[in-house]
Amino acid sequence: MKNKNKVLDIFVKVLSYLLVAAVAVCITLFVCLGSRNNKLNQLQMLIENCFIGEVDETALLDAAADAMVKATGDKWSYYIPASEYAAHMEQMNNAYVGIGVTISGFMGQSGIEILQVDPTGGAYEAGILAGDVITKIDGKSILEIGVDGSKDVIRGEENTTVSITVLRGNEELTFSVIRKTIKVTVSKGQMLEGNVGLIRIANFDARCAEETLAAIKSLVEQGAESLIFDVRYNPGGYKDELVKVLDYLLPEGKIFHSIDYTGREEITKSDSACLEMPMAVLVNGSSYSAAEFFAAALGEYEWAVVVGEQTSGKSYFQNTIVLSDGSAVGLSMGKYFTPNGVSLAEVGGLTPDVLVTVDADTAAKIYAETLQPEEDPQLQAALQELKK
Predict the structure, then answer these.
(1) pLDDT tens digit string along 224-237?
(2) What is the Cα–Cα distance from 275 to 249, expressed in whole angstroms?
(3) 3-class secondary structure, 21
(4) Could you tell me the sign of the dihedral formed by the alpha carbons of 83, 89, 92, 98, in that order?
(5) Contact 240, 207 (CB under 8 A)
(6) Cα–Cα distances in Å, from 118 out to 130, 225, 286, 362?
(7) At residue 4, does pLDDT exceed 70?
(8) In this structure, are residues 271 and 248 in contact, taking their beta carbons and an 8 Å threshold?
(9) Full set of structural domains in the chain with CATH
């Protein structure tokens, strides 16, 4: 019995020494970390060395980086994890490998609705239609993998196939779709009655100026006597693309004024060449940045009447900086002003000359581009203004 007690005493002593040693290691780590004078580094090393559970280091750092950017209080700055950077650049370049559909950002009872089908993509060739509801991808239930998961499964290597099951009415259909490199159509023109040219500009990213100017010239050659630019649901884009379009349209004068974080000012002016004909611009609450600036510049020059709803009011521009691990941050590094020196953020966005609101159902159809011109209240109001 005495031997058992002696063994037990030795075990307790050894265990206590180990606990003291473990505590000493953590204290030593904490003291050493203190000398680094960086709370985030201290916290990271404490979690890595003393946390009893397991942790994904990449997820830890991504969460910390995202929180740091959000803590600036600037709603326009954003963090891009390394896993999402390639998709971000695809968006900015208006080209991606996929099946050529735009899906809803919300999950319905049956699945995810397809809002648009690109005529150059594999989905269009396979027979998938706007309004179809995706229920399965490669046999996996869309309700299980979710909206974000569905995007990851749909994307893949060029010239590979993916199985897409959709619900069309009460009928479930399955299509084998080839993934292709899709060049997003940035600007497209349409001739309306009365020799009015309509140009929809999806964004001001890569190829915007090239496609917009080509659409303008094509419509003018077809006999357009006035133009309507539609920048509703346009999220903005590159300043260089914006000023090329404004320079083509506007007479000589200031078209862009910016100030960066160092205080450096940049003023861009247009030349004397311009396009003189009646114009209108359609905007809404989802017209951001370069889109609302485009409308504001045309309005301030009295070159176009602005029709629609109050815009978002964004006046900061972001530069994208790639970090050491392949992630990136889009950081607000300057602000810009309209030709008359107005900060759209300070005035709550651009107020249209003619205010026309629409209900949620009409707004969804405008976004999906399924609304006929005669059914679009904002477009019809713009046409009436041009007649004046």
Answers:
(1) 999 999 999 999 99
(2) 5
(3) helix
(4) negative
(5) no
(6) 10, 29, 21, 21
(7) no
(8) no
(9) 2-79 (no CATH), 95-182 (2.30.42.10), 185-387 (3.90.226.10)
Q: Where does the pLDDT of residue 32 fall: very low under 50, low under 70, confident under 90, or very high at 90 and above?
A: very low
What CA–CA distance (Å, rounded) separates 222 from 204? 25
Residue 111's CB is within 10 A of a number of other CB atoms, namely 23
CA 364 to CA 373: how far, in whole Å?
14
Tell how many helices (H) and how many strands (E) occur in the chain.
11, 19
Helix (H, G, I), strand (E, B) or coil at 55: coil
What does the DSSP 8-state code read for residue 237?
B
- Which residue, 210, 204, 219, 322, is CA-closest to 256? 204
Q: Are 136 and 144 in contact (CB under 8 A)?
A: no
Cβ contacts of residue 184 below 8 Å, gap of 6+?
Answer: 94, 95, 96, 118, 202
Which residues, at least 6 apart from 153, have a Cβ–Cβ distance to it below 8 Å?
137, 138, 140, 145, 162
Spatial separation of the C-alpha atoms in residues 45 and 366, rounded to whole Å: 51
Contact 97, 145 (CB under 8 A): no
